[in-house]
Amino acid sequence: MMPVLPIQSSATTEECLHLGKLVVLTGPSGVGKGTLMRSLLERHPELYYSVSVTTRSPRPGEIDGKSYYFISGSKFEQLVAEDEFLEWAEFAGNYYGTPRETVLNQINSGKLVVLEIELEGARQIRASFPSALSVFILPPSFDELEKRIRSRAQDSEEAIARRLIRAHEEIQAADEFDIQIVNDDFETALNEIEAVLFK
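Structure tokens predicted for Guanylate kinase:
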């Protein structure tokens, strides 16, 4: 069950961001942003990672409430109608969203909050929270990205084709974001993210 925590202040959403900090990490499917985020959280347990809500099925090893909150499409649509999401988007036939009140509560308490979300959601955050820091993770090349997506062996050929078309569109949007980091060497990319967060 997705926790919804009350905001402990009458501050507006944008005012909350002056107390804590919101960082958005995005990039195309297969670029390695999830792996980077996991390593970042292991190194820095003081970060608050906002667990997204999704309608897709869990992948092997994923835990409900830790990897994602896995819910039905009808429940997701109900939460959208109730304005429970800070941002939400449809990707590869599934919905993804960020719980609003939980994130604002953490920012209001002074935490550094990190989101790992898709491009459409990241654009929503940039529009409503201009003070949020946005980081776009790029692959070293499109061929390498395709290789990574195929190596996961989790998608049909049709799903892979959809992801690659979407990835090409997303990479074109990299310049919209404050910082671009190429995930060629994993350790280098992780160090660059740390430098951005803790400079």
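Strands lie at 21-26, 48-49, 53-54, 69-70, 85-91, 94-99, 112-116, 133-138, 179-182.
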